[in-house]
Amino acid sequence: MAKRSLSSLSSEDLSGKRVLVRVDFNVPVNEQSLITDDTRIRAALPTINDLVSKGAKVILSAHFGRPKGKVNESMRLTPVSERLSQLLGKKVLKTDSCIGDDAQSTVQSMANGDVVLLENVRFFSEEESNDPRFAKKLSSLADVYVNDAFGAAHRSHASTEGVTKYLSPSVAGYLMQKELQYLQGAIDAPKRPLAAIVGGSKVSSKIGVLESLLDKCDKILIGGGMIFTFYKARGLSVGKSLVEEDKLELANELETKAAEKGVQLLLPSDVVLADDFSPNSNSKIVDINSINEGWMGLDIGPNSVNDFQKALSDCQTVIWNGPMGVFEFEKFANGTNAIATTLAALSKKGCCTIIGGGDSVAAVEKAGLADEMSHISTGGGASLELLEGKVLPGVAALDEE
Ligand code: ADP
Ligand code: MG
Which residues contact 362 (CB under 8 A, 6 or more apart)? Predict the structure, then answer.
């Protein structure tokens, strides 16, 4: 199911052509609307630069925030167009609307190699409802379609799916291609042993991933808040730790399934407890059989880190989704940081390390280890759905190789 890539289109195919490129520019901003992390903008540069150098007219489409189908002045893409302009070292024109007269006339005035950014596509409710008339209007601006917005590929929206019905060819940009190569590659044809480290807060948000990974992985290491649901299901006391009472049976089932499939499912042997959910709470390290009443587990303990390191040491591919503890509080970031350091060392030895999930990526970046990993996904939700084995509509709609 390999998808056709932008690399298959030459200057001859693209020179003078209007190319609609869906990008993921949904960057974090502060109260002053200043961009605090431009990773997603930088991640689209290989695609944009390639199109510019092949003489295409590059028409970028993106969403920003949740304007709920209405124009919202604070969610305009102006700061993004300015940052993109700096990064490209060339002027980027921004339209006031993604469709209509302004967009049409701006595109008509483009020279080969020009870059235009269309205003927030989610200012129209027709984007998220994937209205065919809206998709047709958007696509009337262009000849060719490139989807480089991996972070939005799990949505069947007009700019990610609808436009492919009107534009041909429809191909994957370089970021999209790289994301699929790593994430899809890791589950379809990994170098083994393949391990998944799954953490985060809740079992409920990771059920799909855990079930799907049970069929693919040799080892699954579980950390984060969800471990207490597994412990409680085993009959252990968990104090005030996060527990999903309605998922106890499921936790048992997952352990049984893993045993049946011969997958090593590893839970932490010790945890770091806190007497309060706060950065300055009292803390102590205990064995999982001795969790105190009134205390809550906010991180995995040092013995667990050791066990996890041992289990990972012979792995050739490791996928990590979800932090090991409440890494936002320094006191409870050790488990997460230790796993990040372990993966960085494994990468050096040739292991393929893949980080997916918004908070896991943030944790690795906070630890200053992002550059050490084989792949850091730009799409939290999309990477989760891919690991769950779901079809991403924005990918499915692209031309086959
Ligand atoms: P990702 O975005 O990487 O997929 P999630 O969103 O599933 O990760 O989970 C991240 C959150 O899980 C973090 O905010 C972290 O504080 C929380 N978390 C991790 N361990 C615990 C715990 N033991 N108790 C409560 N929350 C936890
Ligand atoms: Mg998250």
Answer: none
How far is the C-alpha of 98 from the C-alpha of 42, rounded, in Å?
Answer: 22
pLDDT of residue 366: 93
Q: How many CB atoms lie within 10 A of CB 50?
A: 18
* Residue nearest (by alpha carbon) to ligand 1 atom 8: 322
The structure tokens 């943030």 sit at 362
Alpha-carbon gap, residue 201 to 178, rounded angstroms: 28
Atom of ligand 1 nearest to the CA of 384: 4
What is the reported pLDDT for 1? 63
Maximum separation of any 2 CA atoms in the chain, in Å? 71
Residue 32 has pLDDT above 70, yes or no: yes
20 touches 59 (CB < 8 A): yes
Residues recorded for the chain: 401
Ligand 1 touching residue 379 (CB < 6 A)? no
d(CA 383, CA 385): 5
Residues in CB range of 274: below 8 A, 6 or more apart: 281, 282, 283, 295, 296, 297, 298, 331, 332
Helix axes 334-348, 358-366, angle to 10 degrees: 80
Q: Tell me the sheet residues that pair with 270.
A: 287
Model confidence pTM above 0.85: yes
Task: Find the 358 Cα to ligand 2 centroid distance in Å.
Answer: 5
Cβ 239 under 6 angstroms from ligand 1: no
Q: Is 381 a catalytic residue?
A: yes
SS3 label, residue 340: helix
378 exposed, middle or buried (CB, 10 Å; 0-12, 13-18, 19+)?
buried
> Could you tell me which residues are beta bridge partners of residue 353?
318
Residue type, 320: W
Strands 92-94 and 115-117: parallel
State how far Cα 235 lies from the chain centre. 35
Spatial distance between the Cα atoms of 387 and 354, rounded to a whole number of angstroms:
11
Query: How would residue 157 be classed by pLDDT, with cut points 50, 70 and 90?
Result: very high
Residue 60 CA to residue 253 CA, distance in Å, equals: 46
Q: What is the DSSP letter of 319?
A: E
List all residues 6 or more positions away from 234 whose beta carbon is below 8 Å from its beta carbon: 252
